[in-house]
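ligand=N-carbamoyl-L-aspartate
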Amino acid sequence: MLFNRKDLLGLEFLDKKEIQIILDSVKPFKSLFMRSVKKAPTLVGKTVVTLFYEPSTRTRTSFEIAAKRLSADVVNLAVNASSVVKGESLIDTGKTLAAMNADYIIIRHSMTGAPDILARNLDASVINAGDGFHEHPTQGLLDLYTIFEKKKKFENLKVLLVGDILHSRVAKSNIWALTKMGADVAVAGPPTLIPQGIEKLGVKVFYNLDEALKTADVVNILRIQLERQKENLFPSVHEYVELYQLTKDRLAKAKSNVLVMHPGPMNRGIEISSEVADSVNAVINEQVTNGIAVRMAILFLLKPKANKNAYSD
Ligand code: NCD
């Protein structure tokens, strides 16, 4: 088996083969999940802890469903974001969880590198469910799975990421993985929301959305993350809507079979119009379903170290 990892911290750190192994592992889990009997005994006796220091609807729920489908015990730790600001106390929280024999820790944190700190200090498998602006690897993988399911290839496929690239960990994970898989990746948005030097990652930059849309096979729309903006990065929401909202008229000028994606939560009427979100091109709900299967595959593939605190027979 070529996949031999304890943790999933980011798609930057995986090679093409490892990404392919994950994607190849998803299908049987999707079939299992879609059946009426939805459980497998894969993780019987294992404990999965979710540790979310930032809000989440679908990611946390999706991990919980995935773990339960694999028969794990799931504990959702209610953390108060204000109580943990430094790595030290994060390690302490992690050590407490290790002492309780957690096998998998799924963490979302506003600080880039927080999952990495836990991973280096614990025997449990650590899965990054989003760290700051950095990475959101399971979202990236479910986006790739959805793209491949629909388009049957990555090589030379034109994938366009639109909007708040600067604050989006989803965009970063997509870029790392898609470029490795041979896709032709571009970003479009206002100059203030596109990180400087992003071209070095092998990405084409457009400031004009209509221009970028012409050739795209896939358009992944990102949420405008107003809560992360320390200063006003565009003159007004109204102007953003004028220039960058994916509207029905804009979509009409793109390829007729262009795939429209969004990681959620959507700001309908800001980055995407309701008509587009509900159009036949959109696969937004399928992304959510695939997210469960992808997370089942990840839990199946990762290998926690035997916990030193565990009782042995
Ligand atoms: C994303 C996130 O938290 O990074 N959401 C998600 O996990 N589905 C995107 C976002 O918040 O806009």
